[in-house]
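Example complex used in Figure S2.
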Amino acid sequence: MNTRAPVLAFDADDTLWHNETIFEDVHERYRQMLSQYHDAATVDRTLFATEMRNLELYGYGVKGFTLSALETAIELTGGKISTAEIRQLIALGRDMLAHPVVLLAGVAETLAALAPTHRLLVITKGDLRDQERKIAKSGLADFFSHTEIVSDKSEAAYAAILRRHAIAAPGFVMVGNSLKSDILPVLALGGTGVHIPYHLNWEHERADPPTTAQGRFFTVETIRDLPDLLAGLGAHR
Amino acid sequence: MNTRAPVLAFDADDTLWHNETIFEDVHERYRQMLSQYHDAATVDRTLFATEMRNLELYGYGVKGFTLSALETAIELTGGKISTAEIRQLIALGRDMLAHPVVLLAGVAETLAALAPTHRLLVITKGDLRDQERKIAKSGLADFFSHTEIVSDKSEAAYAAILRRHAIAAPGFVMVGNSLKSDILPVLALGGTGVHIPYHLNWEHERADPPTTAQGRFFTVETIRDLPDLLAGLGAHR
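Predicted assembly (474 residues):
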């Protein structure tokens, strides 16, 4: 392994495998369930407000989402939602947790190409067990030297990970689909961020792209572009 | 710091602070809510069966408990539970997450006494954010060099922690209230287990005490007995 090569850390949901598509599918069923009471925009807005109100207590992940969806459904129907529908919502949450892991195009071969020359990490947030299960199911676990599951991707959380693994920020590249969670905190620490946008983006993860951090912030269309980008980075050092 | 001193790892819930008392209080309100439908034993048995069925998907912690309690309440009432009561159950779950952290007697002074001469860890399972919040609220965080929040306290999980921190099993002492989660897997790896029984014990955590592991398994009444026990261990080396 080239010890000069940067350590590469990957976000998981919507970077390595599809996730927001599963949420979007559940959102659509949820809107239908409540459509006799409210229009889709009201349902979406109220659910998002509940999620944000509960975020501090629940954290990220499917279980907190399910509890917030139940709470919102009772609120939006004035308590008229049936227990059969509540049961359906609980089952929908379980289905999300049991959902197969579908890798994004190019992920397996790109990781296989990078692993011999780079130390690879996963840094993800959400329910501990759910993220562990997805990594295990993904078939990618062996590519990674460590998996870090954090409750929030704050600058402090990244700083703690860099410290724990004795990684210097200039030698650290974070790859992910969320500007807010994967890129901005890493740039703030002096690391490099590679943004790979996903076609869906949860409202909470939206952020403006960085205006500074020249030479440390890149956007690529697919993970397949990563090896060339890294080769270019190395050439400029 | 005495580098010959063993590394001491502490379970959190019901070892450092009260937890099962909070669950027991919620169980009691839950039984009352369902008492017009079923006797307490049926409620307890059915809820426990739901929790065990969902454990693989939900993992440990308050959010999974709340979802299982909702599912069981709908089942046990044949769907007759009101949405107002469902709302109450969701609020009870949130109250559990927001509950103040109440330390067990002797915890703060014992950790303060041990910290100058021992490396101290926390190893706990459950919801990531909930456990992080409790550690932050406990006022104990500064005593610990690391906090490990795992989805299950299996032998493999302990082995990974020992590897990560470069701790040899013979120099590792785990302190906790659960024979099943805190003691047996650590003994199996060659470490030492100190059992401090709590007056309540979730059915899932019950296990028989180990019959072998002489000289590596101890039971004490309170965490206050730990320094003397450790001094005795050192004297026999």
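The domain at 20-98 of chain A is CATH 1.10.150.240 (DNA polymerase; domain 1). Chain A has a mean pLDDT of 93.
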